[in-house]
Amino acid sequence: MGKNTFFTGQPVLNQLLSLLDRNGIRSIARRGDHDRYYRYFDTYTHLVTMLYCAFNKCTSSREVVSGMQACLHKLGHTGIVKCPARSTLCDANARRSFAVFADVYEQLYRRHKHLLPDSRLRIDPKLFIADSSTITLFQRILNAPSPGKSDGRRKGGIKVHTLINAADDVPLKVSFTAASANDMPFLKEIHLQPGSFIVFDKGYVNYSQYERFCKEGVFFVTRQKKDARYVVEAVNELSEHSKELGVIEDKALLQGTRTQKEGIKLKVRLVTFFDKESARTFEFLTNNFSLPPESIADIYKKKMAHRNTF
Questions:
Q1: Which of 25, 182, 223, 246 has the fewest C-beta atoms lying within 10 Å of its C-beta?
Q2: Do residues 224 and 283 both lie within one domain?
Q3: What is the secondary structure of 163-202 as a DSSP string?
Q4: Looking at residue 4, what is its pLDDT?
Q5: Residue ranges of the chain with pLDDT lower than 50?
Q6: How confident is the model at residue 219, as a pLDDT?
Q7: Of 76, 111, 146, which marks where a domain is finished?
Q8: Maximum distance among all alpha carbons in the chain?
Q9: Pair 176, 286 in one domain
Q10: What element of type H or E holds 26?
Q11: What was the pLDDT predicted at 241?
């Protein structure tokens, strides 16, 4: 970027808003009828208000509204017609569906995808990572993610499930649940192209979804659970190169559910790997039988490298 940059002297929020397509956002809101009950506080105004909240680290709706009222003379630059009342903001947060903001994000991603850095090309564009992160809240808002502390104090929270494209280094899909909810249902929402790889941890163990991935030609890499039941069908011979890189064992398994009702039996591969940096042994489970065992371990390492993204 040259010295005469358009962004010089502009607040960060204005720079961000300049990337948004206002007409596109209003079009998305019209299709889903998300602005039906609001005269001034439309979806675009709601989005700008919440961005203001995030950038100024506001901790309450009163703080958001008071801050925006103090900057009333500057709101015209953001495209806001009228400063929202506190009751209007709270009502919209409770009633307006998060789906409209998911659609806005997808629109923004498609519009600016070509601006992502070229360094992303060093990673396989068909590698996807699923992970979750918990945002702590008061227990009265959402259920707690754990039984609580010894002193009886408990906090609730929101669990954010994210699917990220490792090549682009940006989320493709975001889903919210109570922090106490199980991670497994998120896999049902993920549909990838044949030949893609998806990496996730042990919290997403779901044999029915593993079976679906196999049928759709999607490869998964995850960690093996300690109580998993399986039958060893074959032990693959390791090369000296694989042993030097830390591979201990490479086995073919027949693994599945315990109950007769589901009756899922999967042909999977278990790669046991010793990581010299952490001095830990890991067991990686995958349905890919063609890659070298060290490559399976390397795929999971890419997930750990992106962990700070979530």
A1: 182
A2: yes
A3: EEETTTTEEEEEEEEETTS-SGGGGGG----TT-EEE--G
A4: 46
A5: 1-9, 120-121, 139-141, 151-152, 260, 308-310
A6: 96
A7: 111
A8: 72
A9: yes
A10: helix 22-31
A11: 93
- Say if residue 228 is in the same domain as residue 157: yes
Query: How much is the pLDDT for 149?
Result: 52
Task: Report the distance separating Cα 218 and Cα 192, nearest Å.
Answer: 7
Kindly report the pTM of this predicted structure.
Answer: 0.68
Cα gap 54→285, rounded to integer Å: 39
- Which helix (H) or strand (E) covers residue 129, if one does? strand 127-138
Closest Cα partner for 62 from 42, 81, 90? 90
The DSSP-derived string for 36-72 is TT-SS--HHHHHHHHHHHHHTT--SHHHHHHHHHHTG
Does some domain include residue 147? Answer: yes
**What pLDDT, on the 0 to 100 scale, is given for residue 211?**
92
Angle of CA points 303, 307, 310, to nearest 5°: 125
* Domain around 76: 12-111
CB environment 12-30: b (16+ within 10 A), e (fewer): ebeeebeebeeeebeebbe
Phi then psi for residue 305, to 5 deg, are -70, -30
Total residue length of the chain: 310
Alpha carbon 240 to its chain's center: 37
What are the pLDDT digits (tens) for 252-298? 999 987 654 567 889 999 999 999 888 999 999 999 999 999 999 99
Is residue 92 located within the same domain as residue 178?
A: no
In the prediction, which pLDDT does 37 show? Answer: 80
Has residue 3 been placed in a domain? no
Q: What is the pLDDT of residue 146?
A: 54
Which positions ≥6 away from 195 have C-beta within 8 Å?
126, 217, 218, 219
